[in-house]
Amino acid sequence: MTSNKLQNRFLVIGLGSPIMTDDAIGLKIAEAIEELHLPDVDTLQEAIGGLEILPMIHGYRFAIIVDAIQTYQYKPGTVMIFNPEDFDSTIKEASAHDVNLATAMKMGRDMDPDIMPESVRFVAVEVEDIQTMSESMTEKVAAAVEHAKDAVLYIMNELRCPTEPDQTS
């Protein structure tokens, strides 16, 4: 059910730093989505995290957050899709200055659920280097921009046209 307070629009937020090698991947993905000029999509490119993201996503029906991830479990350039529940184990009590995205999302839903997005999804790209100062990404991560853009478009399509549950049983 859509809240009357939510715009029937998508917000794609690319997170990262343009000067820390592969950390720019979220920014590049958001830029690729912006270049499509989709009528129901707004994009932002930000170097923020935690609670700072809440005012940006307020009022949108759907939010897709794109960012770098470094798990060391996947090859650099691997594109992954997550739901907020995938990060439940990382939710913790913390000061307002040390809040991860999962904790911020929970706090936002607890404080003002009527203006939080109906659906928040995450697209993350496994990165190789987020320590080196450079405006260029590594080759494998740069090559993942197109795949990650496709993942964002897939999520949008899924949210625009949800499949109906099977009622035949």
Characterise the protein shown here.
Helix content is 27%, strand content 22%. The longest helix is centred in the C-terminal third of the chain and has 16 residues, at 145-160. α1 (25-34) crosses α5 (145-160). The chain is of the alpha/beta class and 169 residues long. α1 (25-34) links the parallel β1 and β2 (41-46). The chain has a five-stranded mixed sheet with strand order 2-1-3-5-4. It has a single domain (7-160), classed as Rossmann fold, CATH 3.40.50.1450. The chain contains five helices and five strands; from the N terminus they run βαβαββαβαα. The chain is globular and about 40 Å long.
Mean pLDDT: 86
Unreliable runs: none
CATH level 1 class label: Alpha Beta
Q: Give the radius of gyration.
A: 16 Å
CATH fold-level name: Rossmann fold
Number of helices: 5
Major sheet strand order: 2-1-3-5-4
How many β-strand runs? 5
Kindly report the name of the CATH homologous superfamily. HybD-like
Helical fraction:
25-40%
Separation of termini?
24 Å
Q: How much of the polypeptide forms β-strand, as a percent range?
A: 15-25%
* Element order: H for helix, E for strand: EHEHEEHEHH
Biggest β-sheet: count, sense, barrel?
Answer: 5 strands, mixed
Structural class: alpha/beta
Architecture (CATH level 2) name: 3-Layer(aba) Sandwich
